[in-house]
Design goal:
The chain is an alpha/beta fold. The protein has two domains: 7-170, Galactose-binding domain-like (Jelly Rolls), CATH 2.60.120.260; 176-353, SGNH hydrolase (Rossmann fold). 26% of the residues lie in helices and 25% in strands. Strands 2, 3, 5, 6, 8 and 10 form a six-stranded antiparallel beta sheet that branches. It has a five-stranded parallel beta sheet with strand order 12-11-13-14-15, sandwiched between helices. A four-stranded antiparallel beta sheet has the order 1-9-4-7, with no helix packed on it. Helix 7 (250-267) links the parallel strand 13 (238-242) and strand 14 (273-276). Helix 5 crosses helix 9, helix 6 packs parallel to helix 7 (250-267) and helix 7 (250-267) packs parallel to helix 8 (286-304). It is globular, with a radius of gyration of 20 Å.
């Protein structure tokens, strides 16, 4: 039975909305559950890594670890409307990615056993450091909701608004509560999905009903030792290693890739590890072929040593053959079509291994 919230637990802060019974609730408090972020209840801003780990990595990680890609809020309510107040340092605007994907929030509802997109919260183009928005539900009754955080924006605080006499309670738990962890590039971070729930990891999460943690760092996944040591200590169901794109040269990839994997394997000998190569692979690029061979070598070396918990996905297969040129916005970053194809391929393996 869901717990009705007491009136005094809600806030009535400044609002531009006209709903007289509106109260706002801090998502860091019950009954909300926050997934995919590091220690979200105790950090002053939402983040994906401990500060001390980010500080040991390159400057790109030190910026993008504050982007909330992969963060989710789960709860249930029978409120006829839903509001949000978002407080942030700034709104990140990009020339090749919609504002909804970089800085907005997707809303999904559990319908007949599936998590289905129903609406969104998105800042206006002239938003500075906070915004407020309301949606109204078409159907009455209790709704189990998941709200996805922005892929490329820092978020300091979030308040969810409902009618003060509404029922509000916990959301549905994931079937697979131990998360799949992904490490990789801007593609792994979600660039350039049109909506936050359209990153390939988010799609796989809905396909497999599993929690996940996105450690994609735009331009900055360099296979660093400190990152590997941190990931090796994480409690996870499997690890997807997808940083081919950000290794600046094949030589850098060769120097770091197998060593990164070994740090994971030494800490977690039975963990399934999936190696993935870049999705927009070209048969005519010697650089692409070198990179693919380096990653395949890591996989084969592990297999030859008797490791049967390693798996390999050739990036050439991710966009499939037909309409490959329609899968990206700029020849590099997937659009929604590209992310769906990536999720279908990688998701099949994730589903088998869970």
């Amino acid at each position: 039975m869901k717990k009705a919230i007491s009136y005094y637990e809600g806030l009535k802060p400044h609002t531009n909305l006209d709903d007289e019974d509106l109260i706002y609730l801090d998502i860091r408090k019950k009954p909300f559950e926050i997934y995919g972020l590091y220690d979200p209840l105790n950090q002053p801003v939402f983040k994906r890594l401990p500060d001390e780990v980010a500080a040991k990595c390159n400057s790109g990680v030190q910026k993008t670890y504050l982007h909330t890609s992969g963060g989710r809020i789960r709860f249930s309510t029978d409120s006829p409307y839903l509001c949000i107040q978002v407080f942030t340092k700034e709104i990140n605007r990009m020339n090749h990615m919609p504002l909804l994907g970089s800085s907005g929030f997707d809303i999904y509802q559990e319908i007949n056993g599936k998590s289905v997109f129903i609406d969104k919260f998105v800042p206006c183009v002239d938003t500075k450091d906070w915004y407020e928005m309301r949606i109204r539900f078409v159907n009455e009754g209790l709704k189990n909701l998941t709200i996805y955080f922005p892929l490329y924006n820092q978020v300091d605080s979030v308040y969810i608004g409902v009618g003060k006499e509404s029922l509000i309670g916990e959301g549905i738990r994931y079937t697979h509560e131990k998360p799949v962890v992904y490490y990789g590039s801007s593609i792994t971070q979600g660039g350039c999905a049109s909506r936050t729930g359209n990153s390939y990891e988010a799609i796989i999460s809905r396909m497999c009903d599993t929690d996940y943690m996105c450690l994609g760092f735009s331009g900055s996944a360099l296979g660093e030792s400190d990152m590997a040591e941190y990931i090796a200590k994480m409690d996870m169901s499997m690890f997807v290693m997808d940083y081919d794109y950000n290794a600046p040269t094949p030589e850098h990839l060769e120097k770091t890739h197998e060593e990164f994997f070994k740090k994971i394997r030494n800490k977690q000998p039975g963990l399934p590890v999936v190696f993935v190569t870049k999705p927009n692979f070209s048969d005519y690029s010697f650089d692409n072929i070198q990179r693919r061979n380096i990653i395949y070598k890591t996989y084969m070396n592990a297999m030859q040593k008797g490791d049967r918990n390693v798996y390999y996905i050739d990036g050439r297969s991710l966009f499939q053959d037909d309409y490959r040129d329609c899968c990206t916005v700029d020849g590099v970053h997937p659009n929604d079509f590209g992310f769906v194809r990536m999720a279908q391929c990688i998701g099949r393996m994730v589903k088998e291994l869970l």
